[in-house]
Amino acid sequence: MAASFAGKNVLLGVTGSIAAYKTADWARALGREGASVRVVMTGAAGRFVTPLTFAALTGHEVHADMFAPAGAETIPHIRLARESDLVLIAPATATTIARLANGLADDLLAAIVLATRAPVVVCPAMNCAMYQHPATGSNFSRLAGYGYRLVTPEAGAMACGEEGPGRLPEWDAVRESLLAALSPQDLAGRRFLVTAGPTHEPLDPVRYLGNRSSGRMGYALARTAHRRGADVILISGPTHLPSPPGVETIRVRTAAEMHRAVLDRLGGTAAVVKAAAVSDFRPASCADQKIKKSGPPAALPLAANEDILAGLGRMKKERPGFPLLVGFAAESRNHLAEGRRKLEAKNLDLIAVNDILATDAGFGAETNRLLLLDRSGRAEELPLLSKEEAADRLWDRVASLLASSCQS
């Protein structure tokens, strides 16, 4: 099941840091993804951002006083603790982190955290010397021991003029931590190798043969596997996509470079998911100088690139305990027949077929429609989904196949 903020009650705890203004956008982003956001502010937080800002962005009253007369009969710190599906504390100052590490309940936010059974995600933000102080490090260890998720802060210039670690993390990294807290950790303890994007096969110093792959499907696979606890290696052809937070990303250009990278990192993986659109052919030779318009070649001789997935399939026949192999097939017709043929010919455990002629799926689109086929003969046609949702559905199948292989 794909993790989502839709229908979730998220409690955002804002504390007294200059970075508090950034979390106003986070509250709005959560709301846009379907979350109902309640904000609790410490007294110091109100000196940086007014409660009115968060109330306007979330559409809900902002809570700040443990003993506010309004709603006192509902015991706010207990009610908010029970109603929350997720607690996000951002920015989390050194004072708040110390308070939580010692189990204090001397303000509304600390009391809620002590009383909640929901996952807690903490985003530290403070001066670099404060962040690196041994007492703060000890407090981080205690929070981790309680099961709280700590999002590593960024390093850079501080408002105080110093430079170092302690800046509030960017939203993309925080969003991943929140989604991980809502995701099943059924892939924890396993390593997966995912390939993504196109390859570029050089013709001369400025031109290449390539394809229209954006890499979005492979990157979605890497993100969602990491959310579910996996250790992920992403081998990416040329794309404009940022590396997914927490994922080891290796950038390559050509099919040959991707092949070497896959073989080098194959050891210890539970599954290889080949979502990259690898070029079948490359120019037979690459010109040292730019080919001029006045002298184009009369023909462009091509050489075949090695089929990386087929090569892995051959290795699988010879090596017991070889990783699960998952392939992708971009087809324009006969999807079921072509998928089954490639599944057998390349010795795969699972193949995902997508339609390259669809305007709302496949290359370049934000959505995808996959046909999943496995060696048992099972065929599952997924509806049109976001690529992250489609990736999660594929991981469901991978988790099932891995569980079956462990039992056999």
Compact summary:
The chain has 408 residues and is α/β, with parallel strands linked by helices. It has 13 helices and 21 strands. Strand 6 and strand 7 form a beta hairpin.
Jot down its keywords:
alpha/beta; Rossmann fold; 8-stranded mixed beta sheet; 5-stranded parallel beta sheet; 21 strands
Give a structural overview:
The protein has 408 residues and is α/β, with parallel strands linked by helices. The chain has two domains: 9-182, 3-Layer(aba) Sandwich (Rossmann fold); 191-289 and 301-407, CoaB-like (Rossmann fold, 3-Layer(aba) Sandwich), CATH 3.40.50.10300. The protein is 34% helix and 22% strand. It is built from 13 helices and 21 strands. The strands form six sheets. An eight-stranded mixed β-sheet has the order 12-11-8-13-16-17-19-20, sandwiched between helices. Helix 12 (335-345) links the parallel strand 16 and strand 17. Helix 1 packs parallel to helix 2 (51-58). The protein is elongated and about 80 Å long. The model has no long low-confidence stretch (mean pLDDT 94).
